TrEMBL record:
Entry superkingdom: Bacteria
Keyword Transmembrane: no
Protein's UniProt keywords contain Metal-binding: no
Protein keywords: ATP-binding, Cell inner membrane, Cell membrane, Membrane, Nucleotide-binding, Translocase, Transport
Domain called ABC transporter: residue spans: 2-235
Coiled coil: none
Name used for this protein in its record: ATP-binding cassette domain-containing protein
Organism: Hoeflea alexandrii
Similarity section: Belongs to the ABC transporter superfamily.
Length: 247
């Protein structure tokens, strides 16, 4: 018997503003998929549909064998890190992460030590009592990652999570994400604009253009492809630097 896909979008349709999106794809458990494409193509929309912050007008979304199309985000077994505004401004960092473990904050000593351990792992040990506004944008993003990591949900949805961290720290956080993914066996969808990040982290690429999946392909060699006009336009001069034909 074949295993149910961890993520299944079946003819999922969604429209907002000028965007008319339609997505169909499947992902195996434990896979890491990088989602790339031009600004406004619908990448965040796809993540929000998976998370349950948006509801499709047609189609079905399955997560780990369960139809979640009409379920609230909290009932889906997903963790999402947004591009920004991930934290509750009026609560300290430790509490923000603790809420990821239990929204009612009924945490025992072991749970709080998991919170502190997660802070250590994102390089923010000792930041627990600080308020979000006293942290830099990159530090706040690392708190959001720590919260997603402690939740250990089977599906991890990341919307440009390493943006603004600088190359060294972004690479460290990417490694940490992959480590935790392996520990939990989570399936990851990760929006990124960085082909190197996608190549380093992902097994597969979903390339989105104008609300459609223009390519669903293995990550290996993807950015050297010359048969996808949307990809060439997206990479721009970068494609030429990567050894593609120059005029
Ligand atoms: N609430 C809204 N009202 C109107 N249009 C919206 C709304 N939310 C999103 N859109 C439009 O849907 C399109 C897709 O947005 P989305 O955020 O999914 O793009 P994206 O591919 O993630 O872009 P980026 O790389 O810039 O983050 C955009 O054109 C956006 O303007």
């Amino acid at each position: 018997m074949t295993q149910e896909p961890a993520i299944a979008f079946e003819d999922v349709a969604f429209g907002i503003g000028d965007l008319s999106a339609a997505f169909s794809f499947e992902r195996a458990a434990g896979s890491v998929t990088a989602i790339l494409g031009p600004s406004g193509a619908g990448k965040s929309t796809l993540l929000n549909l998976a998370a349950g912050f948006l509801t499709p007008s047609a189609g079905r979304i399955g997560l780990n064998g369960k139809d979640v199309t009409r379920l609230a985000p909290s009932e889906r077994g997903v963790s999402m890190v947004f591009q920004d505004n991930n934290l509750f401004a009026h609560l300290d960092i430790r509490t923000n992460i603790g809420l990821g473990l239990d929204p009612a904050l009924r945490l025992d000593r072991t749970a709080w030590s998991q919170v502190d351990h997660a802070l250590d792992r994102v390089g923010l040990g000792g930041f627990g009592k600080r308020m979000p506004a006293t942290l830099s944008g990159g530090e706040q993003q690392r708190v959001a990652l720590a919260r997603a990591f402690v939740r250990r949900r089977p599906v991890l949805l990341l919307d440009e999570p390493f943006d603004g961290l600088g190359p060294g720290l972004a690479a460290d956080m990417l490694d940490l994400m992959l480590e935790i993914r392996a520990e939990v066996g989570a399936t990851v969808l990760m929006v990124t604009h960085d082909p190197d990040e996608a190549s380093a982290a992902a097994d597969q690429i979903l390339f989105i253009a104008r609300g459609r999946i223009a390519a669903d392909a293995p990550a290996a060699g993807f950015f050297d492809r010359a048969d996808l006009p949307d990809l060439l336009a997206y990479l721009g001069n970068g494609a030429k630097r990567r050894g593609g034909a120059t005029i």
